[in-house]
Amino acid sequence: MYGDRSAQQAIHGCASDAIQKILATKRTAELADPANPRDPANAFFRFEGTLLRMAFHDAGTWDCDSGRGGANGSLRFPEEVDQPANAGMRDGVLALVEEWEALKAAGCGVTFADLIQIAGAEACFFTGLPRFTVPIGRRDATGPDLSTTHALPGTSTNIEDLKRIFRANGYSLKVTMNLHDLVALSGAHSIGVSRTHPKLGPMDGTPDNFDNVYYRELVKDGCMKNVNGNNFCSDSALLDHVDTAALVVSYRLSNGLWYRDFTNSYIKMGKMGVNGEGTMGPL
């Protein structure tokens, strides 16, 4: 839908540059706070993690049975972003919508669906993951995906429910998600914060770095705990299945292996809903 390859590269480039500027601005503002740099009370604390979570939650609504949802930019609608599963993302969505409007005014015709997936990838690059290119060509939804937000896993989801969720929303005409993807993508919590409790806190010991410390601490401690002692036990469920546990150990031992697998799985995730109702054109 963007024309030839050079046009696609230009659109991807202007969108990527805009996201990097936002991330640098937010980081500078947080570090300039003399009271408490990177304060969890800051609405944009770990803004990188917020952008990445938005990419997951926009794509993760895909439901193969109904053919609805997917990476279609529907997260921009207030009715969807205000769903309980999307708690804590409203400020991030508003900031990205504002940037999207500015990009369109400047002649960069990226869709919001593509911008969300590009933003998630750029957040990973900003914090240490080698840069990769997100395929573009998604069409924007014309309304919220309220009927499919149930497809998003919760903080205490067990391994059987995680497997069921991936079976339900991990298949479309062009992509098949599997348990390998589940474990690789779970490492996104490397730059996240727990927002399920009154106090916020990083999910691992190096929240500014996209690295495999998440897997090291998961193997060491079992149920993940942030700096405030809050549990995020859906992560520990990865240790309850022989195949997923083996992958956790592999990623604990090799940052490079995880980087490779995360990149491949992220690209697959961003294709969920291809040819689904109102979702995408060909990528």
Automatic annotation (TrEMBL):
Enzyme class, UniProt record, top EC level: oxidoreductase
E.C. code: 1.11.1.11
Gene3D superfamilies listed in its UniProt record: 1.10.520.10, Peroxidase, domain 2
InterPro entries: Ccp1-like, Haem_peroxidase, Haem_peroxidase_sf, Peroxidase_I, Peroxidases_heam-ligand_BS
UniProt entry keywords in alphabetical sequence: Oxidoreductase
Signal peptide positions on this chain: none
GO molecular function: heme binding; L-ascorbate peroxidase activity
Domain Plant heme peroxidase family profile: 50-283
Entry cofactors: heme b
Any GO BP: hydrogen peroxide catabolic process
Family the UniProt entry places it in: Belongs to the peroxidase family. Ascorbate peroxidase subfamily.
Name of the protein in its database record: L-ascorbate peroxidase
Species of origin: Ostreobium quekettii
